[in-house]
Amino acid sequence: MKQKEIVTLQRSLLPDTEALLNKQIEMEGKSSAYYLSMASWCHMMGYENAAKYLYTHADEERMHMMKIFQYVNEAGGHAIQPEITGVRHHFNSLREVFELILEHEIKVTKSINNIVDHAFGVKDFATFSFMQWYVTEQREEETMSRRALELFDIIGEEGIGLWTIDQELGKLHAASEGPSA
Hints:
Blueprint: H1 15-45, H2 48-74, H3 94-121, H4 125-155, H5 161-177
């Protein structure tokens, strides 16, 4: 069986790769909206540092979406602006917010790995190479999410625990910003 030619006169992106990337665009867009909603809830509840952490995270997720969006269009595809619906606005606790974040980041990692596996399988090495940044980024995202969640077990939520956790989230946020923060 002859494999499809990847490069054509008008595009270098196979339709099935384009579809996977558009699904990832949607996932990144929903991530941004989800984290923005979480940030607002944290802000409303007085968790200022958690809110800052999540506002920044929402911006980062939108940047991730835009990177893929531009890649699809530059490769001759058609990036689709996703509809964002069903975003949750209320949470039971600060801990629940960070449990949901870790769960979500693991789903994003699986989705990224699926795209990388697909790109390699169809010998779309440009997309494979492009997605390596996301592979590394997802490892960092998962590590940061696990670290944030560990604070609840290390510090505890009783007494001034939640206040202390919020302070530590501020430090975690500053550390994730790098030396210029």
